[in-house]
Amino acid sequence: MSTPAGQAGASGEDRAAQQPRPPSTGDQPAVLSPVLTRRWSAPRSWDIDTYRRLDGYTALPKALAVDPAQITELVKASGLRGRGGAGFPTGMKWSFLPPPDGKPRYLVVNADEGEPGTCKDIPFMMADPHLLIEGCLITCYAIGSSFCAIYVRGEAVQAIRRLTNAVEQARAAGLIGKNIQGSGFDCDIVVHAGAGAYICGEETALLDSLEGLRGQPRLKPPFPAVAGLYARPTVVNNVETIASVPDIVSGGSDWFRSMGTEKSPGPKIYSLSGHVERPGQYEAPMGTTLRQLLAAAGGMKDGIPLKFFTPGGSSTPIFTPEHLDVPLDFDNVAAAGSMLGTTALMIFNETVSVPWAVWKWLEFYKHESCGKCTPCREGTGWLTQILRRVVSGAGVPADLDVLADAAENIQGRSFCALGDAAATPILSSFKYFRSEFEDLISGRAAPVIDARELVGAH
Amino acid sequence: MNSPAPTGWDATEPIELDVPQQAPPQAEPIPGEPLQGKHNPRISTPKFLRLGTVYDELTRQRAAQLIAKYPQSRSALLPLLHLVQSVDGCVSADGIEFCAEQLGLTAAEVEAVATFYTMYKRTPCGEHLVSVCTNTLCAALGGDAIYTSLRAKLGVADQETAGTPGEPGSVTIESAECLAACDHAPVVTVNYEFYDRQTVESAAELVDELQAGRRPAPTRGAALSSFKQTELELAGIFTGEQLSAEVAVPTASEQTLRGNTYAGEHAQVAPAMPDSYQMPDKPEPKS
User: Where are the compositionally biased (Pro residues) regions (chain B) (predicted)?
Assistant: First the structure.
């Protein structure tokens, strides 16, 4: 039976016309490929009846019919890479789990979406929670887990409701619980609310938080695959990653690879925000460029030119208009000096002061630093103070050297990636916009803020 | 400075929380001006209010229900802290002891967790918690102006309440970090329900309504309730009928569906799946 992604009932001819689907070319608008997002427009898309009507829960029986190891092999063959930022190959992550020893192992879904600019997982969980649930069930089966926790950031209350409702619907339908569909496979899923800590998006901090501790990162190794939740083998994956699994099981790895690039296959939800005419969620093949996405999104707001953007959240080095044609996939973005991150494209026009934006971001990192390691805890505090001085017009020429020196000493010397991320806006903005900082110090540019009217209680 | 927690200390005993009063909050340090002689907010002993709450049987039952969800009981600590907040409007000294008692932890262990997370409040919250995103992107699109104007309108500092906490129409305001709704910037939430694409004027109207005891509908999300009610749901306590009503409220905004809409208008679909494919073999066991 054919289960076309996108529209039920596409004919064979349509399929021939559609495949293969490389990223769009040149400056043409992006050619979108709704796979993960394809049910979002359906009325009551969050309901199990809608999900089932649109091919939902058809991958699960297919998965339960084969050996769990075959699912891991399939995901490896698909080339799926983690959608939470790091881009680690998902199948390989699963295969790092030691052989079963009869004791528990766990799946933890990272739904602690908090990276500035990132806004894909929360609308996802609100719109199609059952796709995530089905992905959790298949993944648990593949890795031999019978307990899955979905750790959702606490502020996402409506997403938590939709997920809770979906878990209850699936339980009532016999899809969660004991001996699922007569397979002998047991699985329970718990929806867990966080309590407002960006650091809990770091996988080991998330595990500590889920264990009822302060959410501080753990030293690695051991990696969660060996000693994760309750010191047992654990897979931690992002929402979009786990939600990609059912369609890979339905369509196979070749189908998945018919989208995107060789090393970054599949579709990706690009989140456009900021000074763009039509901000929103656009799902396109990996490797689509910002120029193409902007063309689909109506261009820059009011025609004011682009000044800088983040390819994947505030923790990824900023890009400038010269990077509009960089294919937004893991390797091409890395080759251009940044990271794909969460494909959170925050778009800023010429009216925005770069030093101001960097200062605001640093206030965020300072607020969210967990305090465990000295470079990050102390460093973010000092960087923030110096940046405040610079943007309020009280900076001195030595400030820029101190900022660069401190940032370089935080990067690579912190306990986890938050410290690296905090240094990133400073180092990447110095690369392209150092003169803006110099102008604030020399007085050629007026202060961006009045020091006595600092906004926020960071 | 350290919490008194000698060996053998009984978590169920009333604890001495009569620590020195924290100095009143001061203005942000002026750039370049040393902190000498001033209170340093980074070095202080957290204080939890003693409200004298006695948690009723229902709350105890709910606590037991939450603990039963997890393979290990301590995993229920974050939910339990949300639960006591749904009763008190903040995490009180009584709430700390309640959580410790339920989980067999010391009060110090619970305090350490409660002080780490932004959503656990140490002073009673208003009927409504208004959070304004002041992170870079929302700020650039007007979030800072919204926050500043609401603070001035309410006449309170960050995390402070206009009106009597818990009473109808009382409003607590905070500046928030990224709320993961950047395509709807600038974003305000009330009890964590989204009020998207706000302006200084619309946010002022929203707060006027809240203060008048009305509850305008969120842009995306269920009908507005109260901070305490939302905290109960964050703990993981739902009633069937209420949940059914809440999930049925549409949330698919124009922004959320923009890619879908564009793809529909341009007849763009993903490649169709094949009728069948060969599942990879099980790998050979490693010798």
Answer: 22-32
Contact check, Cβ <8 Å, B193/A33: no
In chain B, residues with a C-beta closer than 8 Å to the C-beta of A252 are: 273-274, 277-279
Mean pLDDT on A17-29: 60
Cβ–Cβ contact B35 with A under 8 A: no
Residues 49-68 of A with CB under 8 A from B: 66-67
pLDDT at A452: 52
User: Which of B72, B90, B247, B257 best probes binding to A when mutated, by most A CB atoms within 10 angstroms?
Assistant: B247
Q: Tell me, yes or no, if B158 comes closer than 8 A to chain A by beta carbon.
A: yes
Residue A44 lies in a domain: no
In contact, A338 and A316? CB cutoff 8 Å: yes
Q: Are residues A305 and A422 in the same domain?
A: no
Section A16-20 average pLDDT: 43
Of B250, B238, B235, B256, give the one whose Cα is nearest residue A169: B238
| Continuous segment of H or E residues that includes residue A89 | none
Contact residues, B window 190-209, toward A, CB-based 8 Å cutoff: 191-194
Nearest CA in chain A to B80: A212
Summary mean pLDDT of chain B: 88
Q: Is the pLDDT of residue A22 over 90?
A: no
* Chain B residues lying within 8 Å of A147, measured CB to CB: 71
What domains appear along chain B, each with residue ranges and CATH number?
A: 8-15+38-124 (1.10.10.1590), 128-226 (3.40.30.10)
Q: Last residue of a domain, which of A325, A349, A373? A: A349
Q: A-chain residues within 8 Å CB-CB of B68?
A: none
pLDDT above 80 for A242: yes
pLDDT on residue B110: 97
Asked if B71 and A74 come within 8 Å (Cβ–Cβ), the reply is no
- Tell me the two tokens of residue A317: 């080095």
| Domain CATH code at residue A414 | 1.20.1440.230
Give mean pLDDT, residues B45-62: 94
* CB neighbour list of residue B242: distance below 8 Å, 6 or more residues apart: none
Report helix, strand or coil for A306.
strand
- Most distant CA pair in chain B: distance in Å? 75
Distances (CA, A) of B276 to A66, A250, A255, B273, B281: 15, 9, 10, 8, 15
At residue A346, the pLDDT reads 98
Please, are residues B120 and A195 in contact by the beta-carbon 8 Å criterion?
Answer: yes
- For residue A23, what pLDDT is reported? 57
pLDDT at site A453: 54
Q: Report the alpha-carbon distance of residue A53 to residue B18 in Å, rounded.
A: 60
The pLDDT, as a whole number, for residue B285 is: 74
DSSP character at residue B76: G
Chain A residues whose beta carbon lies within 8 Å of the beta carbon of residue B141: 274-275
Contacts of A92 in chain B (CB under 8 A): none
Q: Say if residue A272's pLDDT is above 90.
A: yes
What's the pLDDT score for residue A18? 44
Is residue B9's pLDDT more than 60?
Answer: no
With a CB-CB cutoff of 8 Å, which residues 425-454 of chain A face chain B? 451-454
Interface test with A, best of B137, B149, B224, B265 (most A CBs within 10 A): B137
A209 within a domain of the structure (yes/no):
yes
Do both A230 and A276 map to the same domain? no
A202 part of contact set with chain B, CB < 8 Å: no
ipTM at complex level: 0.92
Task: Quick: pLDDT tens for A126-156.
Answer: 999 999 999 999 999 999 999 999 999 999 9
Number of domains in chain A: 3
Examine residue A391 and state whether it is found in any structural domain, yes or no: yes
Q: What CATH number is given to the structural domain containing A272?
A: 3.10.20.600
Residue whose pair of structure tokens reads 């030093």 in the numeric block: A355
In this structure, are A409 and A388 located in the same domain? Answer: yes
- For residue A23, tell me if it sits in a domain: no
- The residue out of A307, A325, A349 marking a domain boundary is A349
Q: In this structure, are A72 and A156 located in the same domain?
A: yes
Same domain? A419 vs A292: no
pLDDT at residue B16, rounded to an integer: 44
Least Cα distance to B243 among A158, A177, A361 occurs for: A158
Q: Is B264 on the interface with A (CB under 8 A)?
A: yes
pTM: 0.91
Strand-pair category, A106-111 with A147-152 = parallel
